[in-house]
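debug: dumping io for the single-chain case to check the tokenizer round-trip. Nothing else runs in this session.
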Amino acid sequence: MNQDRQARLTLDQLGKIFERVQKPGRYTGGEWNQVRKNPRKAATRVALIFPDVYEIGMSYLGQKILYSILNSRPSVLAERVFAPWTDFERELRAADIPLYSLENRIPLPAFDILGFSLLYELNYTNVLTVLDLGRVPVLASERGPDAPLVIAGGPAAFNPEPVADIFDLFFLGDGEEGFPEIIDRYADLKTRRLDKRRILEELASIEGVYVPSLYTRVRAGNSTLLVPRPEGSAPARVEKRVLSSFRRSHMPERIVVPNIQAVFDRVSCEAARGCPHRCRFCQATGVYFPFRIKSPSFLAGKMLNSLRLTGYEDASLSALSISDYPYLDETVKALMGELEKNKVSLSLSSLRPKGLSPEVAESIVKVRKTGFTLVPEAGTERLRRVINKPLTDQDIWDALSQAFSRGWRLVKLYFMIGLPTEKEEDLLGIIALVRETLRLGQKILGSPPRINLSVSSFIPKPHTPFQWLGMEDEDVLLEKQDLIRSELRRHRTVEIKEHPVSTSVLEGVFSRGDRKLGEAIREAWKRGARFDSWKDELDVNAWKDAFQAAGIDYRSYLGPIDRRAELPWDIIDAGIKKSALLGELDKALSAEPTPSCLEAKCGDCRGCRLSKKMDRVFEEPVRVPRMKAADLGRASGRVVRYRAIYEKRKQTRYLSHRDLIRILQRSFRRAGVPFLQSQGFHPQPLISYGPALPLGMEGKREVLEFKSPALFDEAVFAARVNKCLPSGIRFLRLEKLDDSAPALSRVLDRFVYSVKLRDLSLRAAAGKNAGSASPPGESRRGRIQELVDGFSAERAAGVELTVDRKKGTLRLSIKNTMGKNPRPQDIITELFGIEGAVHILSREDILLKGPARSAGEGDLQP
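debug: decoded output
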């Protein structure tokens, strides 16, 4: 490497940056279950990069699987990287600090392989940001032999051409076996000191690998699209990789628990991969084909063990169509027997109405209710036959009736507009379905249910029967959105969430694009395009200007394509034959349904090359192990109140109070600490906390109170819980309270803060009030004493300021008024003209009323 491979960034280097960004917890690392290896002992370093923000990337199961597989190998170090939000990007550039991984804070050039997860086309500009901010050339042709190998995989890689100039290679298909094979082969080739071209040629022989630089671009026939043609020994078509056996394939248990809340913040277990249905709009059908399932006993055991190792209070069974998991009813019933005892909720993804049996519905509401989701896609049965969504209106009413009768009050409905052959009656059908849902909910619940209505625009995606059709014009799509919005506006419990049409258009361009688009992507990025999938961040003008500068009419990618034309993505064999897709297109235009792969006979279809890998026999018994119960302490026979003292320091100072609460509660679960929770549909832990620390401030003696049916030994409690906490949080003391003891909020007396005199001097010298500060040394300390002494009597009511010259600190003691207390950072700003004072302050102690004046008195020694 051109850069020292041992270089790592420190928290001290990043601290000033964290002060100036919106959510510093995205960039600190240090989460529970992270794998932090010694970089010096790793033969191969891999950065697993998700080109979107931390909260979204930490919800992605694919990265968790690869992270677990790779780090189980002693010779491989795998660390996570996420796209920085615009504020963090700005600060890193200003400080001339490269983007880094979370575990060891290693800059990107010091990795051997950079592996990007491409789930979405509108993350392309974020890929450029990550590479450029990481000081890695954005074009593959500009990266020399010492640069990391840059790889992409995921659904968006199934048309790799728009970003073919960026990546050294693409990996298509299941990564559990393929990605480690790439790593092993690459490590071997590097030791042989082959040039980059030869290395890429060797890697291209691995099943599932596409190397764009080994192909030339040509215009085939009358089409304006450029298609790749192989040179030398490169394969004419790249077959996606399919896992040899899925039933007991790797499922991570010790997953990283994010320090800040992720979008899907729970244990998610993949029950099945692929989908047996053949919805004609759905790209995922081809990308993840064929349908394969996990062993139910294996699945249940992994889920329960992962819950124990993470402390999560929520779990989910995930699949493209979880209703088609053949053991769903038995698995849910058996799991809930264990989950209910531990107050863990269970949710199901992508539930088809026909798959919601009364037993499943009854089971999943036992702990807590979340939203109930249905995905009709189209407003009429005719249009559902066009898209091959086998769903009648009666199926929808039956599912909603079950949900409402079991107390669900929030329903999420997903529809698309602009579908092939769509008519006005289909749009009116969406409106009618929503109104009927309201009527049905009113009848069963006694009041109108809440409805979250999601409306997105249809995009004719590659590897689907609709890939030859055009996308509807922007103005027409906007008119359809307006019709739905205007008709439903009067229903106050209906919230319409429209996917921006401009976003869908851009997604359509890149999902159907060719290699010419690479220049436009780079041009838009140079003009500031970032996070294009985010409604408030998409800069439509930047993209229009970029297309114009590149000489591209983006609308040309959205029109219909001749059925005989070669397509840029034909280079990828997803497993379903092109002739089968064409046959499905003809059946769609005549509204003719096609049975699912579980119902049809392969001998009659012959539309794929992977039918032998599809699961069809389901005769396995379901055995669910018992979930390990909370085992810390001994039964007391009654409810006991406890007060606990803990500290929040190091990188955890950059976590919000809400994030801290989740971390503490999950640490209790991991440690086996039984604690009381409220009753009802949404049970909450009965834990009281001291006042929230401002983001960026350390707390040395924080306090909480909780109730438990167990008796604890103080030392055993602290030792067990501290082993289950991320670095920076530590319990210091536990105290059993009398039943008559007043609530925590009633005994808070004073809050004690401190700031180092040296930090005051440095900040004052660097700030706007520098002119009032004295030179370094004793004269400056004298100036600080003078300012403290001059603090007005009126302003100082309830506030005591003391300069401790021996410790070199300024101490602030603030009386709790049970109202709005003065903020210590405001006092420091007023006295010394220092902005951002919260980051140099620490809360030293919380003084309580009564005999125990300090919350921290009697702390256990470290």
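debug: round-trip ok. The first strand starts at residue 44 and ends at 50.
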